[in-house]
Design brief:
The structure holds two protein chains of two kinds. Chain A is an alpha+beta fold. In chain A, the strands form two sheets. Chain A has a five-stranded antiparallel β-sheet with strand order 1-2-3-5-4. In chain A, strands 7-6-10-8-9 form a five-stranded mixed β-sheet. In chain A, a hairpin with a 3-residue loop joins strand 4 and strand 5. The longest helix of chain A has about 35 residues. Chain B is of the alpha/beta class. Chain B has one domain: Rossmann fold (3-Layer(aba) Sandwich). In chain B, strands 2-3-1-4-5-6 form a six-stranded mixed β-sheet, with helices on both faces. In chain B, helix 5 links the parallel strand 5 and strand 6. The longest helix of chain B has 15 residues. Chain B is globular. Classes of the chains: A alpha+beta, B alpha/beta. At the A-B interface, helix 2, helix 11, helix 13, helix 16 and helix 17 of A face helix 1, helix 2, helix 3, helix 4 and helix 5 of B. Chain A: It holds the Pfam family RasGEF_N. Chain A: This is (African queen) hypothetical protein. Chain A: Keywords: Guanine-nucleotide releasing factor. Chain A: One of its GO terms (cellular component) is plasma membrane.
Chain lengths: ~750, ~180
């Protein structure tokens, strides 16, 4: 019924068209409610035109509900207008248009039902395919039934129809019914082949094979099932090993070469394209139904693989943000203008991402820039050029949380499936300029959305709408609602195919080589670059951490109070105590030690990081050997050191790849080596490696159990080499190190 | 009317979204739509004053860790939620609170500690006293709630409004400036 009313949405339609039509329908359905609510709330905002994915809004009227055994339907009366299909250029053959202007049809939607009823509803009463319903069903059924169960019901229904003694008058309907069921199976296999993977034996696929052999031998469905089976078993048997072997050595070799890129002097457009390439690969692999609230927001450790593709996207988002934060902070000795250049470089990359319509990495960069450790660097931001500052504001405005993220929702609606970026606000001067300069690009771009908005929406839908209604019937209206969001994701995934971006392994290497700082590390570095302006009053009497405020006196207070609070936790219970102790240890020990270090007059240790505080000019990363002791400043709690791996078998072509690692002041040699190995992707026993600092004249090999933090020579660059241990060098090594250490 | 930006934070699965939906919608509505502008806005009367609350719920995006600072920068009051049925969600709050204080650069931020799902007494693993102790340590208000059974949900938000009022009795002029909004 619905199909006819809407002008014959059939299987032939591409997925995109189907989802578009559906989004339109769903939107039309909810429109009255929306308007009503808006009026109720009397929102002052004068909203401009709403661009949505439908052109014409049909008139729907709720007629009522209809209850049958095991299902409830919502019935609408729909006024259908018949209008001439608009031909783009010529309109010669207008003969087929009927004279009927409009009529009212009755449309029945399943509101809720048992699994059996929901499966039955895949075909309408006349046996026609209900393509919208089929799409909603297949996208969401996993939250209420297993694959095997649904398949079972489908096949049983087919068999029942086939064996029924039908009256001659209804033969057609019965046949149509069966045809529709087969069509559903086709859609299912094509759209969600993963459902049938079920390694190792693919039971559902085997069941389907048995079915087609019996009922539909030689049919298209039969051969499709055979083909899928062949693909799955081929994957299982041969190809896996081969691919793995190919990849691994390649990855290894890459590790030994340097990255050619170094912010801020990087090609912005190219960086934006490469980020987009990474995002696109993940976004295309994203399985939309893993975003459902029932899967994503209710996942726990045991079921984390259920949402693996979502998690991969989130991890990439974070990875980009972390890179922004770390590249801005990791070199403490930069002059302010050099650091500002890095901000500007990220903004230039972000601007290119806007043109590419990659809202995921765009938001990741903006989030990185707005993260506290970066955002609080007032002096650095203050010297950013006016244009760049404006650009930042305009890009940040896209992701404003105001009015339930209205700005980004609207933008995604406008540009989601458009060929290129063309939307700017009235006040977006920089973006206007940008789009004006670019004109309309020759190639069209896809779109990569920021997934978080969808995840929040789906979580809220899952929370707000009950799974079952009417004494245990599956609430299918909820599935429709969820599908509205899934359909958008699918549509954008389709659009993402428009990207054609080459892969640059050098970029991947750069991306991989950037150090990642955790919250606390980033904040500490940030405070060393620009100490907090407002002096600590009698700050945080109860607060455990915050010992890195850069004021010596605080340290002892902080550690005293923190031991108090650990007692506090001892009193409460065992479990709480355990985690507390762990996190306290992490926090207190650097404090205590660095306190010790500053009072035991080791001024040379103060320089590497805290020298940035004094605003001195060394820009080459080399800390001055004779830094004046800053009696009022604590020593840094950690250094960032660069470690290169050197082995006999690899030639490095005169270039050196290094990985940066954090070195905190309680880490001994084996731990540092372990950290370095982790970064450099090396396996094995830390004891079989040596670590040495590169000094102008020679190398200083660290003793096997030194506290590396205190052993390093901070008068020089903190560059290190990691080597497989050679037994004969041992003795000399220790000798050297001992000499050097004083 | 004064506007209050309230941020709901906590690990995944603690029922943040349920608290928000329960507060904003009151009842579980059939035609719920999370995508419209005022999905998370609610006008309430607290102590004889009309207030417009805008709730920013991080549900579904807990793992976008890089974005937390942003939420925190914007929020005026914070609901820190754990589930009384999962110890780990309780433990996670310490770090969240520290982050808030860092971002806000203040000692004292309007905050309520919430132990949710108190209808599931049989599955309780975090004792009420534990929650109270943590709140004492945080120097903030503590409540146990149930979004499902509608226990103490409104109180959480009302209390935050009172805390914000106490801290900054009059609306500061610069709060109205669009600049704040722009920075998210």
């Amino acid at each position: 019924m619905l199909v006819r009313g809407c002008g014959g949405g059939e299987l032939r339609h591409s997925l995109a068209e189907r989802t578009k039509a559906l989004a339109a329908k769903c939107h039309a359905l909810r429109s009255p409610a929306r308007e009503q609510r808006s009026v109720e709330r009397r929102r002052p905002r004068n909203r401009k035109s709403q661009t949505r994915w439908y052109v014409k809004q049909p008139t729907w009227r709720l007629w009522g509900e209809e209850k049958v055994d095991g299902a409830v339907y919502t019935v609408y009366l729909k006024k259908v207008r018949y209008h001439r299909p608009t031909r783009s250029a010529s309109s010669e053959s207008d003969d087929e248009i009927s004279h009927l202007e409009w009529e009212t049809v009755r449309v029945r939607f399943v509101k809720a039902g048992t699994v059996e009823r929901l499966v039955e509803a895949l075909a309408t009463d006349d046996g026609e395919l209900e393509s919208t319903y089929v799409n909603v069903f297949l996208a969401t059924y996993r939250s209420f039934a297993e694959c095997g169960k649904v398949l079972d019901l489908l096949l049983r229904r087919y068999q029942a129809l086939a064996s029924e003694d039908v009256l001659p008058a209804t033969v057609d309907t019965s046949q149509q019914h069966r045809k529709t069921l087969v069509a559903c199976l086709h859609v299912w296999l094509d759209t969600y082949p993963e459902d049938f993977r079920q390694p190792p034996h693919h039971p559902a696929l085997q069941q389907l094979l048995a079915f087609t052999q019996l009922h539909l031998p030689g049919s298209e469905l039969h051969s499709k099932v055979l083909q899928k089976l062949a693909v799955f078993s081929a994957e299982r048997n041969g190809c896996v090993g081969g691919a793995g072997v190919c990849l691994a050595p390649g990855m290894r070799v890459l590790q030994h070469h340097t990255s050619a890129y170094r912010l801020p002097h990087v090609p912005h457009r190219h960086f934006a394209e490469q980020l987009t390439r990474m995002d696109m690969e993940l976004f295309k692999k994203l399985v939309p139904h893993q975003c459902l609230g029932a899967v994503w927001s209710r996942r726990d450790k045991d079921r984390s693989h259920d949402a693996a593709t979502v998690l991969a996207t989130v991890n990439q988002f974070n990875a980009v943000s972390f890179r922004v934060i770390s590249t801005v902070l990791v070199e403490p000795n930069l002059r302010p203008i050099e650091r500002t250049d890095i901000l500007a470089a990220w903004l230039d990359i972000a601007r290119e991402l806007r043109v590419l319509k990659n809202f995921s990495s765009l938001k990741a960069i903006i989030s990185g820039l707005q993260s506290n450790p970066v955002y609080r660097l007032r002096k650095t931001w203050a010297i950013l050029s006016k244009e760049k500052a404006e650009l930042f504001e305009e890009l940040a405005r896209i992701f404003s949380e105001d009015n339930n993220r209205w700005a980004q929702r609207e933008l995604l609606m406008r540009e989601g499936t458009a060929k290129f970026a063309d939307t700017v606000g009235e006040n977006d001067r920089q973006l206007q300029k940008l789009l004006h300069e670019r004109g309309s690009p020759g190639v069209s771009h896809g779109t990569i959305p920021y997934l978080g908005t969808f995840l929040t929406d789906l979580t809220m839908i899952d929370t707000a709408i009950p799974d079952t209604v009417f004494d245990g019937l599956i609430n299918f209206d909820k599935k429709r609602k969820e599908f509205e969001v899934l359909a958008q994701i699918k549509l954008l995934q389709g659009a993402a195919n428009a990207y054609h971006l080459p892969c640059d392994p050098l970029f991947d290497r750069w991306f991989d080589s950037v150090i990642i700082l955790d919250d606390r590390e980033a904040y500490q570095l940030s405070c060393q670059i620009e100490p907090p302006t407002n002096p600590p009053k009698e700050r945080r009497p109860k607060n455990i951490n915050n010992n890195s405020q850069g004021h010596r006196k605080n340290d002892s207070i902080a550690s005293t109070s923190s031991s108090n609070s650990s007692q506090f936790y001892c009193e409460t219970d065992g479990a709480g105590n355990a985690w507390k102790r762990d996190s306290l240890e992490r926090r207190i020990s650097p404090t205590r030690l660095s306190h010790g270090s500053s009072s035991s007059s080791l001024p040379s240790l103060d320089v590497s990081l805290s020298s940035a505080n004094s605003g001195q000019k060394t820009a080459n990363g080399k800390a001055p050997a004779t830094s004046p002791a800053h009696p009022n400043k604590t020593g840094p709690d950690f250094y960032i050191i660069r470690v290169t791996y050197e082995s006999d078998c690899v030639e490095t072509e005169g270039v050196v790849l290094y990985k940066s690692i954090m070195l905190s002041n309680n880490e001994r040699t084996p731990q540092v080596i372990r950290n370095a190995m982790l970064k450099l992707n090396l396996d094995g026993d830390p004891d079989s490696y040596t670590l040495s600092q590169v000094l102008p004249e020679k190398e200083m090999v660290l003793p096997s159990n030194a506290n590396v933090y205190y052993a390093v020579n901070t008068a020089y660059n903190l560059n290190f080499i990691l080597r497989p241990r050679k037994p004969q060098t041992e003795a000399i090594v220790n000798g050297k190190a001992k000499n050097k250490r004083t | 009317m004064r506007e209050y930006k309230i941020v709901v934070l906590g690990s995944g699965g603690v029922g943040k979204s349920a608290l928000t939906v329960q507060f904003v919608q009151g009842i579980f509505v059939e035609k719920y739509d999370p995508t419209i502008e005022d999905s998370y806005r609610k006008q309430v009367e607290v102590d004889g004053q009309q207030c417009m609350l805008e709730i920013l719920d991080t549900a579904g995006t807990e793992q976008f860790t890089a974005m937390r600072d942003l939420y925190m920068k914007n929020g005026q009051g914070f609901v820190l939620v754990y589930s009384i049925t999962a110890q780990s969600t309780f433990n996670d709050l310490q770090d969240l609170r520290e982050q808030i204080l860092r971002v806000k650069d203040k000692v004292d931020v309007p905050m309520v500690l919430v132990g949710n799902k108190c209808d599931l007494e049989a599955e309780r693993v975090v004792g009420k006293q534990q929650g109270a102790n943590l709140a004492n340590h945080f120097d903030c208000v503590f409540m146990e709630t149930s979004a499902k059974a509608k226990i103490s949900v409104n109180e959480v938000f009302y209390d935050l409004v009172r805390q914000i009022n106490k801290k900054s009795p009059k609306e500061e002029k610069n709060k109205k400036k669009p600049r704040l909004c722009r920075m998210l």
